[in-house]
Design brief:
Blueprint lengths: L1 H20 L13 H34 E2 L3 H9 L6 H16 L7 H26 L3 H8 L4 H30 L2 H6 L4 H11 L3 H21 L1 H4 L17 E2 L4 H28 L3 H42 L4 H10 L3 H12 L5 H4 L3 H24 L3 H9 L4 H30 L4 H4 L7 H9 L4 H29 L9
Parallel strand pairs: 1-2
Helix pairs in contact: 1-10, 1-14, 1-15, 2-5, 2-7, 4-5, 4-12, 4-22, 5-7, 6-7, 9-10, 9-15, 12-22, 13-17, 13-19, 13-22, 14-17, 15-17, 17-19, 18-19, 19-22, 21-22
C-alpha cells in the first residue's frame, strides 16, 4: 500500500516540484515572487485566518455548551450542527452570493470577501465543533472534581480544562485555515480573487504553465509549513468520533442562562442551514416552472455518472482508510497515514495541476483520459479524513477482546472479520457517508482533471453559472441540495436496516 500511495499520489507532487525547479528559463524560477503575488498571498492568508478564527471560536463555544453542560435538546443540537459539513460549500456559496445580490444589487461585490469568510466560517464550524468536542468528552471527570475541591469553576475551567483541550483548539484552527486557504469553489462563486483561484486562472484559462507551477509550489510550501508546525497532533486529529462507551467526562447542570443557550443554537442553525435554503428558494422562485424544467434537463444527464463516480470513489476511500488505520493500530505502520496527511494538505488546484502534469503522458493515458484520474483525486483529497474516522473507531475497541480471541486460538483473519469489522460498523458507516458527500460535492480538483465527455453535476452547475440567469443557477443548486439530502437519508436508512443491532452516533 505505501508503494501504491507513493507512485500514484506522492509522485505527482514530487514531479510538480521537479518540473518547477528544472525549468529551462532559470530567470523565471522565482518570477512569480512579485508585489502582486505577495499581496494576494496576504489577502488569502488573512481571509483563511479569519475564517479559522470565527469557526474555531464558535465551534469551541458550541463544544463546551453541548459536551460540558446538561440541558434539553442537547443531542438534537449536536446532530444539527454537524449537518453543514455534509453539504458542499459551493451550495452555500450560491445561496449567499445570490442573496447578497438580491439585497444589495450590484454593490454586493464589495462584500464578496466578507461573504467568503462567512461561508467558510459556517461550513467549517462543525469541524471545529467535532474536534474540540472530542477532546472535551475525553477529559476524565476526576481531574475536574479534584480541581473544584481547591478552586472555583471558572479557575478550574482556565487551569484544567482549557490546557487539556488546547491542542484540539490549535488543530481545529490549523485545519480550518488549510481548508479555507485551499478551497476553490466558494471564492470562485463569489468572484473573489484568492491565491487558489489565481492558480486556476493562470493554468486553465491563460495557459501560463510556468507561472501557475511556480505559484503552486509556493502555495504548497505555505500549506506544508502550516502542517509541519503541528504535525504530531494533526496526524491524530479526529474528524468524526464515535461516542465513547463508558465515557468518564463530567457534565454540569445549569439553572440560569438556558434561554440564552437555546437562542444561540437556534441562531447558528438558522444562518447555517435554514437561511441558505430560504435564499435558494427565493432566488429560484424568481423564475417560473420552465426554469425548474430547464434546470432538471441540464442536471439529469449528469446524475448517473456523478452518482457512480462518487460511489466508486467512496468504496475505494473506505477500503483504503480501513487498511491504513488497521495496519497503524495492529502493526504500528505509520508511513501510510503520514503519506495521506501530506497529500491531504495539498490545495485542490495544486493537486489538480500535479495530477495533470504527471499523468499527461502517452504511457499513462489510460489514467489521464479516464475516470481513474478523478478517483485518484478523491483518494488524495479525502483518504486522510476517512482513515482518521476509522482510526478513532479502532481506539474504542478494547485490546482485551482481540487478546482473548488469540488465546482461544482464533486466527488474525477470523478476529478481523468476526470482531473488528462488526465493532467498526458505526465508524465505517460514518466514513462511507462523509466520504460520499465529499466526493459528490468536490469541485476544485475535479474541474481541472475531469476527462473530455464526462459530465458531473457540480461542474455543470459551476460552468453554467457564469452566463446563466441567477434563477437557473439557484434552481440547479437547490435541486443538487435536495438530491444530496435524499442520498444522506437513504444511506442512513440503509445503515439502520442492515446494522440495526448496532447503535451509532457521529461523535
Amino acid at each position: 500500500m505505501p508503494a501504491i500511495l507513493l507512485t500514484t499520489l506522492v509522485a505527482p507532487l514530487a514531479f510538480l516540484i521537479t518540473d518547477w525547479f528544472t525549468q529551462t528559463d532559470k530567470s523565471a524560477l522565482f518570477a512569480f515572487l512579485n508585489r502582486t503575488t505577495l499581496l494576494l498571498i496576504g489577502k488569502s492568508l488573512l481571509m483563511a485566518g479569519l475564517s479559522a478564527f470565527f469557526a474555531t471560536l464558535a465551534g469551541g463555544l458550541c463544544s463546551f455548551f453541548l459536551h460540558k453542560l446538561s440541558f434539553k435538546w442537547n443531542r438534537f443540537y449536536k446532530i444539527a450542527l454537524v449537518m453543514p459539513l455534509l453539504i458542499s460549500p459551493y451550495i452555500f456559496a450560491v445561496a449567499w452570493n445570490g442573496g447578497l445580490h438580491l439585497v444589495l444589487g450590484n454593490d454586493a461585490s464589495i462584500f464578496s470577501s466578507a461573504g467568503v469568510v462567512l461561508v467558510h466560517s459556517l461550513v467549517f464550524l462543525p469541524l471545529a465543533f467535532i474536534i474540540i468536542g472530542s477532546a472535551l468528552s475525553q477529559i476524565n471527570a476526576t481531574y475536574e472534581e479534584a480541581g473544584l475541591m481547591l478552586v472555583s469553576f471558572k479557575k478550574m475551567l482556565v487551569r484544567i480544562i482549557l490546557p487539556l483541550v488546547k491542542p484540539a483548539i490549535l488543530i481545529s484552527f490549523l485545519l480550518v485555515m488549510i481548508f479555507s486557504l485551499s478551497d476553490f469553489s466558494v471564492p470562485a462563486y463569489f468572484g473573489v480573487q484568492t491565491f487558489t483561484t489565481e492558480i486556476f486562472t493562470q493554468f486553465s484559462a491563460l495557459y501560463n504553465f510556468p507561472l501557475a507551477i511556480g505559484q503552486s509550489v509556493l502555495l504548497l510550501t505555505i500549506c506544508f509549513a502550516i502542517m509541519f508546525s503541528e504535525a504530531k497532533y494533526l496526524s491524530d486529529s479526529p474528524f468524526f468520533t464515535i461516542s465513547l462507551k463508558g465515557n468518564t467526562s463530567k457534565k454540569y447542570s445549569i439553572n440560569r442562562g438556558k434561554g440564552f443557550l437555546h437562542l444561540w443554537f437556534w441562531f447558528l442553525l438558522f444562518i447555517s442551514l435554514v437561511l441558505p435554503v430560504v435564499l435558494l428558494t427565493i432566488q429560484s422562485s424568481a423564475g417560473n416552472w420552465l426554469i425548474i424544467k430547464k434546470a432538471w434537463q441540464l442536471l439529469e444527464p449528469t446524475f448517473g455518472y456523478s452518482l457512480g463516480l462518487a460511489f466508486t470513489g467512496t468504496v475505494i476511500i473506505t477500503l483504503s482508510a480501513l487498511w491504513i488505520a488497521y495496519t497503524a493500530r495492529v502493526y504500528n505502520s505509520k508511513l501510510p497515514n503520514s503519506l495521506m496527511m501530506i497529500i491531504f494538505v495539498v490545495p485542490s488546484t495544486v493537486s489538480g495541476i500535479s495530477l495533470i502534469r504527471f499523468y499527461n503522458h502517452p504511457s499513462l493515458a489510460f489514467v489521464y483520459g479516464s475516470f481513474l484520474i478523478i478517483l485518484l483525486a478523491y483518494l488524495g483529497r479525502f483518504g486522510f479524513i476517512a482513515s482518521r474516522i476509522i482510526a478513532n473507531g479502532l481506539k474504542q475497541i478494547p485490546e482485551s477482546l482481540m487478546e482473548a480471541a488469540l488465546l482461544a486460538g482464533a486466527s488474525p483473519v477470523k478476529i478481523f472479520f468476526s470482531i473488528t469489522i462488526p465493532l467498526l460498523i458505526p465508524s465505517l458507516l460514518a466514513t462511507f457517508i462523509l466520504s460520499f458527500i465529499l466526493c459528490w460535492g468536490e469541485l476544485g480538483v475535479v474541474i481541472m482533471v475531469y476527462p473530455p465527455g464526462a459530465e458531473l453535476m457540480n461542474i455543470k452547475t459551476f460552468t453554467i453559472s457564469a452566463n446563466a440567469p441567477l434563477a437557473l443557477t439557484s434552481t440547479m443548486t437547490l435541486l443538487n441540495l435536495c438530491i444530496t439530502c435524499l442520498l444522506i437519508a437513504m444511506f442512513l436508512l440503509t445503515g439502520r436496516v442492515l446494522f440495526k443491532k448496532y447503535s451509532y452516533a457521529f461523535y
